[in-house]
Amino acid sequence: MSTEAHEQGSEAAVTPPEPLRLLAEDADDLHIISAALQDAIMRPVDIVWEPAARRVTLKLSRFCWECGGTRVMAAMQFGDVTAVKSRRLPRLPESALELLAMEFAPDEAPGGRVILMFAGGGDLRIDVECLDAVLTDLSERWPARLAPTHAGEEADPA
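Structure (tokenized):
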């Protein structure tokens, strides 16, 4: 039995968490990714739909709920995409979009629709033959200016 962890206990406390890497193959998996991406910020220009490759890639500034007070650049990619539609999203490429949640609405198995819901009531619908999504952190974390707040909460500086 090694005592290495005990000897390095103080160093382990300052070791930053590993970058987040998650895979979604069903609605439950997507629910976990949705929680990790709650309050992520992006712009319309950060949504890339490649019809020939049948994929959609999103670049986001993710609030790190799991380690608090930081943000990280992340990417989410959906495969087996057949269509992408938006409703009430700003058209200006540099407009700010705040992701609130994602859900999977099953259709003819194993396909369905991934719905990304944004603050202000807009949404993005991604039709998929099957749910095949990956989320990964891309950068080092940096301090967030403010922690996101929701109805009934007060802002806490992060």
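The mean pLDDT is 88. The radius of gyration is 18 Å.
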